[in-house]
Amino acid sequence: MKLKLCAILFSVVLLSCQQEKEKKEKTYTARAFVVSESFNEIPKKKEDVLSVFKSDSTNKPDGQQFSIKFKDTVLSIQVNAKDKKTADHFSMAQFINTQETAVLVQLAGNKVVAPFYIVSLKNGSPEVISLNRPSNGKEDLKYTKGLEEQRRSSYVINNDFLITIVNGKVYPIKRQREDERIQGSYFLNSPDKSTLVFLTPSSLYQVNYLTNEVFNLPVSSKIISDSIRIFQNIQSNYNWHKNVNGTSFLKENADDNRIVDIKEFKH
Hints:
The protein is mostly beta strands. It contains four helices and 20 strands. The protein has helices at about 1-25, 140-145, 220-225, 230-235; strands spanning about 25-30, 30, 50-55, 65-70, 75-80, 85, 90-95, 100-105, 115-120, 125-130, 145-150, 155, 160-165, 170, 185-190, 195-200, 205-210, 215-220, 240, 250. The strands form five sheets. Strands 1, 3, 4, 5 and 6 form a five-stranded mixed sheet that branches. A five-stranded mixed sheet has the order 2-10-9-8-7, with no helix packed on it. The protein is elongated, with a radius of gyration of 24 Å. The relative contact order is 0.10.
């Protein structure tokens, strides 16, 4: 009788543990990013926020890792539908709004090519948004650089997105060709920070992420390839000009006007 009672109690405990585990872990499938959406939900309750914590795994070949929780539940992302691979450890996790309802994460692994996601709350419930755009550019490996800081309050991700980390806004960066990410290196930005300049092999490709306007300025490959003097050459021979819409683009000087101090805008 005692053995039977113990078996019943063990079964109850085991079932409770399984239910508790299911309660504390939940996997989400990432959806595509929608242009103009914002990730800045204001929580209705104090506990309706996300939390970031250091993972307690002792096996960390890729350095410190982080996980995300909503209340008492650890959130994971389904990264491969075919083999049902999931991930709940990230090499980086940073809030992108002051409300702490949206977090930018990158999967653990190669810090350059590992995909990025946003874990965000919408109407009080978590969801995952992918920040990975397909590309077949010949030089993708060269120009896929992961996260690059534009300034203290914003990041450029893989030449494809700009994220402001105060109000949770994400802006897609217009490509030169739709099927490939910008084949160039993020170089500098305009004084108002809204026009990004990329060094391509033959031009300064400029895109304003707020207006979606672009301007491609052909530049001698000799200037672009001179990594030591390129800033000096740009400072001496080019200047910011506003178009009829008030958008700033870098253009070659027609006179002796110069950029006062390019260091202010240098990436």
